[in-house]
Specification:
The protein is mainly beta. The protein has one helix at about 55; strands spanning about 5, 15-20, 40-45, 50, 65-75, 75-85, 90-94. The strands form 2 sheets. Strands 1-2-3-4 form a 4-stranded antiparallel beta sheet. A 3-stranded antiparallel beta sheet has the order 5-6-7, with no helix packed on it.
């Protein structure tokens, strides 16, 4: 994991965690680490978290995620994923 952002992503008043990673430039015999597409861990308010599949969270980011940032605007929030040597991916949250 390279990117971690903590926020109330589903607006239920409980803190959630968004994570992302991947690493492509590794030794050939090891193989690249590419199973992370952004993962939303939904908090239950007691310190426990449930991993939501991409179909439920709506988040699927290809590439080597290096950072995640939530930017609050007057029209809602933006979740910004920066990726290594690639364009940023932006998801909107109202």
């Amino acid at each position: 994991m390279y990117g971690i952002e903590i926020d109330d992503f589903d607006h239920d008043g409980i803190i959630d965690v968004m994570t992302g990673g991947n690493l492509y430039k590794v030794k050939p015999e090891v193989g690249r680490y590419d199973a992370s597409y952004g993962l939303l861990l939904k908090g239950d308010g007691t310190g426990n978290f449930k991993a939501l599949p991409a179909q439920e969270s709506g988040v699927k980011v290809d590439g080597e995620i290096r950072d995640i940032l939530t930017l609050k605007t007057s029209k809602g929030s933006l979740i910004i994923f920066s990726r290594n040597n690639d364009a940023v991916r932006v998801y909107t949250r109202e």
